[in-house]
């Protein structure tokens, strides 16, 4: 597999993690990332940043998909 494919797979995984986390926040007021890594620790901030960057990357792919 190429590096680009690994980046796409990672972006999809992080986007799904982010969507599931926000779903839990909205439905149950439970932040899974904060629970696993601590509230705004460096580890949780990295996860949140990767989720955000993945969302931007997936957004850039939407133009090709539509």
In a nutshell, what does this entry contain?
It contains three helices and no strands. Helix 1 packs across helix 3.
Which terms would index this structure?
66 residues, 85% helix, 0% strand, mainly alpha
Number of helical regions:
3
SSE succession: HHH
Cα(first) to Cα(last) distance is 25 Å
Oligomer state equals: single chain
Please summarize the sheet with the most strands.
none
Mean pLDDT: 93
Characterize the overall form: globular
Number of strands: 0
What's the helical proportion of residues?
A: over 70%
Give the count of structural domains: 1
Hey, roughly how much beta strand do the residues contain? under 5%
Query: Which class of secondary structure composition applies to the elements?
Result: mainly alpha
Radius of gyration: 13 Å
Low-confidence stretches: none
Topology:
Blueprint: H1 3-28, H2 32-37, H3 42-65
Question: Can you walk through the features of this model?
Answer:
- The chain has about 70 residues and is mainly α.
- It has one domain (about 5-65).
- It is built from three helices and no strands.
- The protein has helices spanning about 5-30, 30-35, 40-65.
- Helix 1 (about 5-30) crosses helix 3 (about 40-65).
- The mean pLDDT is about 95.
């Amino acid at each position: 597999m190429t590096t680009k494919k690994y980046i796409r797979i990672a972006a999809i995984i992080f986007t799904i993690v982010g969507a599931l986390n926000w779903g839990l926040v909205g439905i149950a007021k439970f932040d899974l990332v904060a629970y696993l890594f601590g509230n705004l620790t460096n580890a949780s901030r990295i996860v949140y940043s990767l989720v955000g960057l993945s969302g931007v990357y997936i957004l850039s792919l939407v133009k090709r998909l539509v």
